[in-house]
Design goal:
single chain, about 150 residues, mainly alpha
């Protein structure tokens, strides 16, 4: 906004002068708001973090869908005897794990159990990463078998 020389009147009446003052206040308010928005680093950082979080969630959903599709394809290609053997092995593994867990609770010292529990919580918190790694391992294993076979 350019200023007229000081010796030139800017308003012809008090009402016009009030209107000019009000207009100037309005423009100043807008300028202050714009400057405050530019300097609100914390707010901008929070907005960016929210955007990144939304993208990460969307990518995780896509990754889960891909993993589920790969698992479904692998399951469909397995012969029934292999599926039955896998089901039996899974049942035996669950029983053995339950027994190992019971023994662990009886025999392991408390500090060791606490550290192990922290590791389990961390693994559960990163379940998507673990599933992706497992799916990648299965895909590599299937790929190497295909090349050999």
């Amino acid at each position: 906004m350019t200023q007229p020389p000081h010796d030139v009147p800017t308003a012809s009446s008090p009402q016009e002068l009030r209107e000019q003052v009000e207009q100037t206040r309005h423009e100043l308010g807008q300028t202050v708001q714009a400057l405050a928005a530019k300097t609100a680093v914390k707010a901008r950082a929070q907005e960016k973090a929210a955007e990144v979080k939304e993208q990460a969630v969307a990518n995780a959903v896509k990754a889960r869908a891909k993993v589920a599709a790969v698992v479904h394809q692998v399951q469909n290609r397995l012969p029934e005897p292999v599926k039955d053997g896998a089901a039996q092995a899974a049942g035996q593994a669950r029983a053995t794990a339950a027994e190992a867990g019971r023994l662990w609770q009886e025999k392991a010292p408390e500090p060791v159990r606490q550290k192990a529990a922290e590791g389990v919580r961390a693994a559960r918190g990163n379940r998507a990463v673990l599933l992706l790694a497992a799916a990648g391992g299965v895909a590599l294993w299937l790929g190497s078998r295909r090349r050999k076979g």
